[in-house]
Amino acid sequence: MLSKIKWGGLAGLVAALLFVLSAIINQLSPVQTTYDSAASYLYRGVVLACYIGVIVAVLGIHALHRGRPKYGRLGTAGAALTIAGYSIIALTTVLSIVQGHASLLTLRIAGALILLIGSALLGVIILRARLLPWWCGVLLIVAFPLGHFANEVFSSAENLLLALLWGSVGVALLARRQEVTEPVATQPAQTG
């Protein structure tokens, strides 16, 4: 279990760094509907790696909370929906890379809706379970929908908000992993 939490934390940090990189790439060479440059393909490849990192981070959240009474079926459902949403968006990203243009917009919107519901549910459960800092739950609830609207102001705002979200989750998972391992190491051995 601890290794899943550790890998989830590391994946969250990597996803955060990649989201920042994707924002930089998008600012240097804005991605259009038709991919006509190496930067467009690089951007999509980096974003695809972000989505994979996020899926591993959500698995880390699930590993940390699994079996806790305040997590339960709703937490599992939130994690599953979040993973499903990111998986659908990742799949449409792969298909767009292969086709050379943005495609399957309806499927991508369906994935975003599933992701919105799943991340909101997972955020509420994180707030309720109190195993991760409260801001991780709040960011799960607001980062994705807020990012959509913030993109109207600054074209890479969503990527930066997602970097903040998954970086925070990554750090929190790694810190929580450390807390979980410390008591075991300091307890005296029991003798028979």
Total of helices: 6
Rg over CA atoms: 18 Å
**In total, how many domains does the architecture comprise?**
1
The fraction of residues in strands falls at under 5%
What coarse outline follows from CA principal-axis ratios?
globular
Structural class: mainly alpha
What integer is the average pLDDT?
A: 88
Please estimate the helix content. Answer: over 70%
Largest sheet: none
Through-space gap between termini:
28 Å
Number of strands: 0
Task: Set out the fold topology.
Blueprint: H1 2-28, H2 38-65, H3 72-99, H4 105-129, H5 134-150, H6 157-186
Helix pairs in contact: 1-2, 1-6, 2-3, 2-6, 3-4, 4-5, 5-6
Q: What do you see in this structure?
A:
The protein is globular, with a radius of gyration of 18 Å. Mean pLDDT is 88; it is low at 181-187. With 192 residues, it is an all-alpha fold. The protein is 81% helix and 0% strand. The protein contains six helices and no strands. It has one domain. The protein has helices at 2-28, 38-65, 72-99, 105-129, 134-150, 157-186.
Question: Which characteristics define this entry?
Answer:
192 residues; mainly alpha
In brief:
This protein is an all-alpha fold and about 190 residues long.
